[in-house]
Amino acid sequence: MKNVGLQYAGVAAFLMIIVFLVSYYIGVHPFVEMSHLFFDLFIYGLVIFFALNEFKKVINEGILHFWQGMTIGFFVNIFSCGIYVIFLFLILNLDENILNSYQQQAVDFLEIKSVQYIKSFGEEQYQNQLETIQETTILDLLLIGGLKKFISAMLITPVFSIMKRKT
After folding, report:
1. DSSP state, residue 64
2. How many other C-beta atoms are found inside a 10 Å radius of the C-beta of residue 108?
3. Are 54 and 160 in contact (CB under 8 A)?
4. What is the pLDDT of residues 56-111, one digit of tens each?
5. Which of 15, 75, 111, 144 is exposed most, by the fewest CB atoms within 10 A?
6. Is pLDDT of 52 > 80?
7. What SS3 state is found at 28?
C-alpha cells in the first residue's frame, strides 16, 4: 500500500506544482483564487482513483477494503503535501514577488468586496483583515497552501475508497 501511495504522491505533487506555476505566471494567484480548490479536488480525485485501481487490480487480486483505500489515499495525501510544501518553501524564498503579489491581489480583492465585507463583519474587522494581509509571511503561505491540499485530499479520499471497495 505504501509503495502505491508514494508512487502516486509524486504524480499528484508534480501536477499540483504545474498548476501552481502555470496559474501564477498567467496572473491568477494560486493563494487568492478559489478555483484552485477545484483543481486540487480534480487532481487528487484522479490520482487517488488510479492509485486505488492499481492496488485493487494489480496487487490485491481485485479486492479493496475501505480501510485500504483510506490508507492509500492518506499516503498519497501526506507525501504529496510534503513535496508541495517543500516546493512552496523553495519558490517563495527564491521569488519574493510571490508574497508581494499575494498581498497586493488579496488587498485588491478585499477592496472590491469592501462594501459587502463591512456590511457583514463591520469596519473594524475589515481594517483587521487588511492589516493581516499586509503582515502575511512566507510561513503563513506555506501553512495555507499545505492545509488546502491536505483538506482537499481528505475530502475526496473517502469518496473513492467507498466507490472502489470490494469487487
Report:
1. B
2. 11
3. no
4. 988 888 888 999 999 999 999 999 999 999 999 999 999 889 999 999 988 998 88
5. 111
6. yes
7. coil
